[in-house]
Design a protein that fits this description.
alpha/beta, 2 helices, 5 strands
Length: about 120
Amino acid sequence: MAIGHGGWVIGRILADFLNLMDLTSFKIEHYHGPHKQARAKVKYPLSTHVSGRRVLLVDDVSDSGDTFEIALEHLRTRGAPAIVRTAVIHHKIQSLFMPISMPDFHARFPCPISMPARL
């Protein structure tokens, strides 16, 4: 299950890698126009029930941890999953969301997202 919009690509790649045909998503937003909201909100809710399902919840970055907290709250409104795990590409040190385990390595990205494109 991908958290939009940062988790969409990662969710799709993981679904392909794990040979899973059942991929769904919902969108959580921190911003309303140019202004950051005090708390993230679900903009497009999950359209399926998760009762008894095994759920892998993926996103690109865990910055404040707010997105994962909101996502887990929202997930509970859609039933009681058998198990829930989270995956994130970049877990920032200041994130209040603490995963079950932390990797013992860090990936290096080829270039920062703010780097201008060179033609």
